[in-house]
Amino acid sequence: MNIRLIKAPLNLRFSYADKDRYPVFKREFDKLSEYDEDPVGQWLKMAKARGETKESDQVMLTLIVELHRKIDEITKILKNEKTEMLKLDYDSKIDEIGFEHFKIEEELFEKEKIYYGRIPMPIFPKREVAIFFKAIDKQIAKIEMMHERDRQDWNSYVAARERVMIRERKAKR
Predict the structure, then answer these.
(1) What phi and psi values does residue 161 have, to the nearest 5 degrees?
(2) Do the Cβ atoms of 14 and 110 come closer than 8 Å?
(3) Which of 8, 17, 47, 152 could be cross-linked to 97 through a Cys-Cys bond (beta carbons 3.0 to 4.6 Å apart)?
(4) Domains of the chain listed by start with CATH number
């Protein structure tokens, strides 16, 4: 199997998704897909659907929505409210990524097993990307399930890392 991977410094939290825990992980996975389903995100979706934002600067609108989300986040902290995430069994560092695969530094996977994980992505807006993946060997996994918006951001990140790698190679010459 020919898998093309490039260096990328990411973190991964994950657990084995056995048949008993899979429904719990799937529920969190589905919940994380609703990233835009907060009140401001819902309002913005409805405004876009009604055509009320076509005259607006989309970049500014996105920035304002993100500022509102940050204020909501600060308010939660001040009120001592926490968003509960599942505790996952392992923390690892992702060493290399590709469009469909990734490789971790340590040998923690069991071949052919399905895992659930979260990857904090260095993208805007910052968020944890939820994934289900299947171990190909002890270090390499294939992404099996990822939300569409997360997939787009993941692919953009992979492409950006490839550009960095190409620039580094050219600089060495």
Answers:
(1) -65, -35
(2) no
(3) 8
(4) 6-34+86-172 (2.40.10.220)
Measure the N-to-C terminal CA separation of the chain; round to a whole number of Å. Answer: 30
Residue 85 to residues 35, 42, 44, 47, 136: CA-CA distances in angstroms? 14, 22, 26, 30, 27
Task: Report the chain (173 residues): mean pLDDT per 10 consecutive residues.
Answer: 89 96 94 68 79 84 83 84 87 96 96 97 85 97 94 94 89 85
Q: Are the CB atoms for 134 and 146 separated by under 8 Å?
A: no
pLDDT of residue 34: 58
Beta bridge partners of 121: 127
Query: Measured between alpha carbons, how far is 126 from 84 in angstroms, rounded to an integer?
Result: 17
Write down the pTM of the prediction.
0.80
Burial label, 115 (beta-carbon count in 10 A; 0-12, 13-18, 19+) = buried
CA atoms within 13 A on the CB side of 25: 24
Residues with Cβ within 8 Å of 158's Cβ and at least 6 positions away in sequence, in order, are: 6, 8, 97, 98, 99
The C-alpha atoms of residue 93 and residue 154 are separated, in whole angstroms, by: 16
